[in-house]
Every structure is written in structure tokens, then in C-alpha cells.
Specification:
CATH architecture of the largest domain in chain A: Orthogonal Bundle
CATH class of the domain at 434-556 in chain B: Mainly Alpha
Helix content of chain B: 25-40%
Shape of chain B: globular
CATH superfamily of the largest domain in chain A: Alpha-helical ferredoxin
Structural class of chain B: alpha+beta
Number of domains of chain A: 2
CATH topology of the domain at 434-556 in chain B: Methane Monooxygenase Hydroxylase, Chain G, domain 1
Shape of chain A: elongated
Oligomer: heterodimer
Largest sheet of chain A: 5 strands, mixed
Largest sheet of chain B: 6 strands, antiparallel
CATH architecture of the domain at 434-556 in chain B: Up-down Bundle
Number of helices of chain B: 15
Order of helices and strands of chain A: HEEHEEEEEHHHHHHH
Chain lengths: 254, 591
Amino acid sequence: MAQAATSTRTIKVEIKRQSTPDGKATTEAFEIPYRPNMNITSLLGEIALNPTTVTGAATTPITYDSNCLEEICGSCAMLINGKAMMACSALVDKLEQPIRLAPLSKFPVVRDLAVDRSVLFENLKAVKAWVPIDGTYDLGPAPRQFPQIQEQRYPLSNCISCTICMEVCPQFNDVTGFVGAATIAQARLFNMDPAGSVLKEDRLRALAGDGGIQECGFAQNCVQACPKGLPLTEAISDMGRDVFVQQVKDLFTR
Amino acid sequence: MAATPRIIVVGGGLAGLSAVIKIAEAGGKVDLFSIVPVKRSHSVCAQGGINAAKNLKGEGDDVFKHFDDTIYGGDFLANQTPVKAMTAQGPAIIDLLDRMGVPFNRTPEGLLDFRRFGGTLYHRTAFAGATTGQQLLYALDEQVRRYEAEGKVTKYEGWEFLSAVLDSKGAARGICAMDLRSMETRTFPADAIIVCTGGNGAIFGKSTNSVVCTGSAQSALYQQGAFYANGEFIQVHPTAIPGEDKLRLMSESARGEGGRVWVPRDKNDKRVARSIPEADRWYFLEEWYPKYGNLVPRDVATRAIFKVVYEHGMGIDGQPMVYLDLTHIDRATLDRKLEGILEIYEKFVGDDPREVPMKIFPGMHYTMGGLWVDFNQQTNIPGVYAAGEADYSIHGANRLGANSLLSCIYGGFVAGPQAMAYAKALPAQEGDGGHAAELARQKEKNEALLNNKGTENPFKIWRELGETMTKHATIIRYNAGLDEADAKIVELLERYKNVNLSDKSQWANTSFAFTRQLYNMLELGRVIVQGARLRDESRGAHYKPDFPERNDEKFLKTTKAAYKDGAPAFEFEEVDTQFITPRPRRYDATA
């Protein structure tokens, strides 16, 4: 087996592992037989089929989050060669070896490459990222909406909650408590909806103050790293303006 | 009678979330269980759109035509009552989604835009770019988050359903589930449960499905006494991108917007696709099916591609691939209507489909069969409901494109209120309702797996299962092959007893959870191949060259599998055909 491997092409991978949230992190190295067009998730699947390190030591399959494998569910974000990316759309042929895999650094590690990103879903509650419909009974169609509004909203609605924008943001940390770009973009999305805008002021107030939109340092890392190309900085600047106007209004009326 | 009905919904895709919303709205308490955070459910993978006969294009479409197309597309195997109800509710469901803020594409006048899809001649498919499933799921996810914030819904994300808790009379009193982090296994009480756990693509190894689509929950319930119906009906989507780890869907909307399928007329043609002139291209779907062209139903298109590749030997460069061509459509239109899927092709294949025809091949896509349910979405286990792809009810022998999203929402909207009504009338449970016994049974299974000293790698067993299922139980089926597949699964079940977990830890042990699912996949695999073996006819997606015709006399029946003595036992049930008389299904007719 070891001899056969040396004569064929292989992929070298180093994976940062951690068996529990409080456990010590270690790195394990693997060598996987090469096949064209592999992605990182198929590489991790190969390890599960034969969980043996490069030194021949038996180990366990890698724990990581994944589901759709086509970059739409947002599960498999991780650090690949130090860069926050989706593992499913990260193609081995385009990566420098050894490929280094590590969990996202700004979120609590669950195990190996899996992290706890539930903070994003809590943030979405705080900004009321929904349209408060009257009920699910048949009330006829929604108001007409020009294609231009749809064309503005749709890109923001493509957010897959991968949290890469938060991972790469220098302001997203325990000190600032910043909500991050994804949440601000969702607040913007619902403020643009003709019916969703009924909660506009609540959303703007939720984004005012500590941890809110003022924490953004305009590093613009988010918009560069977003795998779905969301116009994040545009959404932040639009919301920044609206939050400011709301604060001024509230100063005089509340 | 329970004061406030407490309902458990398992699965947070479109069907599950639809049920949750209806229950919360009606004042019930819901516990929502999902393996993944619900926003990451497989519904996000749906691309092309959702059908409803809104008739906004002046074509004279109506809900009866939608009903007829669905029944005809499903080769008359679906019971007609629920399909009629679903298609009738289609327009109202679209309106509701619109009110929830789904960014549907619009016409210049601000109305919903509609496109064409397979198996119909009408523009009946509402869409949000080519990520409609994602947009619909998010809209429902947002409404559920709102109810969660109001304390009406409790989410158990990262918990896996293991089984139903059944009382001494066989009625559901809760579920047993496992926390995929702490690996804690416990039971949860409920007056009724709704199972919305999607399809079972993982049984076929590689498919267009997500990782969680194993069919494990449905299989567990089947092993607890639920009927599994029409298991042999598996949709193989004509246009998928073959991949190392999965087959990535290339939406039917590509053809709905004018995409054309072709191969070079000369199999030795080495020219670059775009430089091959029209006269040297064989648009075989348009030639064989002049009326529907590239928009024949999926089973028909899939068999045609299979025939071109394997019988005519005309695959591109001798490979099992044909062209799906969008390059004649202008970029702006493509970006406005199909950007999501074009990006998938670009990212995973590396070519720009606006410039280069895509190379595609059929791939396992959808589970028409599923848990047997009555017209109120209740299984034969009292208090256990099912909805969405996990149930068998709507699509018969072949699902039409863009009907799945509608059937999920419709099924959830029926199951939710029905489960509430059932729960309100439910007598108080006797004793512990079976909780202790079920917990003990599941813990025993866990212990057995963890203490097994065998040598079999579960992932290898899975790979072999996928290979045999794909080979024998997808596009073309022969009885000898199906027998071989069943024997193979029996062998794999035997080897499973000797399985070895390389990871025996009790924290976020994904291979342990997977190995539990694998057992259920194997049991359900037998239902699929044996059901196919018994059905000596061809109907919809089920095609046997040795029995090429539909046989209504013998097989216009629902297949029902029950788990008896460790194997499937089959019975057949009459199909409700009270509204539309079955007629021959001929998409090649020109009239």
C-alpha cells in the first residue's frame, strides 16, 4: 500500500483537529490518492473511507459541517490554506499543497472543522429579519413590485449564512460585539420590501449603538470574501445612513 | 384532551416549516427537530421554480389543466384527490409566498413573471432567479424565526430523529432523538408528530440530493410499522453535472428559458462545440418530441439521453455526456433568470455556460415514493403524519418539474392543521406512553454499535450500496439485475453486523450517526429494489425493457411495503382515478 502510493500522484493535506470544544488542537497529516476535479469535501470523504494518517497511524474520520455540496446551504465554511472559503467549491486542483484545513477562528469549535455559528441566527432575530404577515390564509397577491426592486433585493436574499463575512471582519470580535455584515444586509433586505418596511424603525434601532452598524471599520474584507458576491458594503453604507437619520429623528421625538 | 396541543415536526425544509407555521398560527406548541440548522435544509437546492396556474400570460391556463398535467405526467399513479386539492391551492400559495417577501422575478408591470417547465405547454412556473428553493425556504424560515422569537416554536437543531415513541395501542406519543454533539439520546413527548425528512438520494451513493437526504427517518418508521409506498419510483433528472462527490443539478429552467439538448451528428466530430454548425447538430429531443421539444417530462428526457449515449453511442467524445446549450441566449437574460445555476457550473466545472455548451448527464434526483399517507397526510401509525418528499402522495410515477416545492408547502399546510385536530381529540396517555421502552431500545442499538469489534468500514458498505442501486435501480431495470441488487443488500446487511467504528467517542461523532443512518438506508434499499422487481410494467420513471408497456389492469396500483420478519412484505392498493380517466401517455404525439 505505502509503496503503491509513492508511485502514484497524491494530495497532501494537513488538518487542524480538536476532539472537544476545550480540547487541545493538534495537526494531522494525510496523503490521499489523486483524482482530477476533487473538492475539499470529497477529500474529507476519502479520509472517512480510510482514516489513516500519513505515518500509517489509525485515526478517526474528520468532523465537519456539510450538506448540499453545491455552495447554497452555507454549511461547510472553513479555513483553507488560511483563507475562509466554502469547502465544497474549493477545488483541489487550484490549491497549493500541502492543503491546510482549519476551523473558522472567530466561532467556538465544536470538533475538528465544525464550529458553532448560531450567533448569526440570534442576530437575525434581533433585527426582525422577516415580513410580519397577517396570516397564512388567502389574502390575495402582494402589492405589485417593479422589477427594479426585485433586482435590488434578490442579491441580498442570496446570503447563505455561511458567516465568512464575519470571520474575515477585523471588527467582529468579543470587544466590539459587532453583529457583522450578514445581519445588516438582511435588515436592509427587509427594509426594502414594501410590506417588510413596516418594521423598518425597529430594525434601524436594533442596529444603533454598541455592537451595531457604527462598529464597521470599512475594511471591506466582507465584500471580497463573500462566496455569493453580496453587495455587503453597499448595504452597510445604506443602512448606516438610515440608522443615523433614525437616531436623529428619535433624539427629537422620543 | 391536551390543553395546548404539542406537536413535533421532524425536518426543517419547506414541508416541515410549512407545517410549523400552520400549527403556531393556530395556537399549538411546536418542537422542531432538524439534523442541520433549518436554513441549511435540502430545499435550498431547488432551483427552477414553483408551479401554480395563475394564468398571467394570457394563455388560458387554469388549475384543472395543472391538475391534468400533473396526473398525466405522473402516469396516472397518483391518487387524484390530493393532487386536485394541491393544484387548486397553488395560486393562493404563490400569493402567500409573495406576501412573505420572496423576491420572485417580475414583469415590467410589476406582476409575477412565469416561465415554462417540463411536461406542460403553459408558462406556469413562478421563479426567483434560479435559486427559487433557497428563496422560498428562507421566507418560511423567517416566519418560523418570528414564531420562535415569540416563544411558540422551539428548535432542536443538530438533533437527529431515531424513532417514534408508540404507546400500547400503537399511537405516537413522541419521538426518540439523538443530539449530534453530546450524542445524548432521549425521548420527547408529543401528541402528534409530522415527518418531513425529504428524499433518500444517499441510498444511491451519488445523487443531486444533500448529505442529510438518507431516508433514514422514513425507514425507521417503516421498520416500526408504517407503510412505505411506491418506493420503486425514483426520478433520475436528465441534466446533472457529474461530479466526484455528488451530481450537481442543472435545473430544468435552463431548458424552460430556451436551452437545447444536442450531440454532434457525427460521433467522431472533434470540433469545439460552438464551432459545429446547426446542420451538424442532432437536437434529438426536438426531433423525437416535436410538441414538447426539450421540455418533455424528466423520465422521458432521461431515457432519451440514455438511449443516445448507450444505444446510439453518440455521447460527446464517447463519454456519457450530452450538450445542454444556452449560448444562443443573450447574457443579460441569462443573468437575470438563471444566474444561480450558471454560477454552479462555472465554479464546479470551470467553463462559462454563457460561452460554452454545458456537458450534462442524468443523475438520481427525487424520491416519488415515500411514507404512505391518507388524504389528510396521516400515515397508518396513528398520530404520525408525513409531508413533502418524505411522503408518496402527489407525484405518482414521475414528478413534473417545479411541482415539488408546491407539494411540500401544500403537504405541510394540510399536515399541520390535521395534526392539531388529531391532538385535540387525543385521549390522555396511559402510563409513560412507551417512552422508557423506546429509549431503552435505541440505547441498546447505540451500545451494540459502539461495542462492535468488527472490521467493516461503514463508508465502504455505503459506497457498495450506492453502486449497486445506481446500476440496477435507476433508468433501466431488469429483473435479473434487481434480484442481484437485493442479494447484494442482504450481503451488506450481513456485513453491517460486523461494522467497526473507527471513532467510538461520544462527542460530535458524525461517523457514528452516519452508521446508524446506513442501517436504515440498507433496509429501505430493499423496499426500492423489491418493489421494482414486482412491478412488471413500465410506468413513468420505472422502465423495464422486458415489459415496455404500461399495464393498468395489473399495476394501476399503489405499492405498499410493510416490514415483516425483517424484510419487506408487499400489498397493492387501488388508485383514486375518479376525476381523470387514465389514457395513454404519449409525449411524442404531435396533435
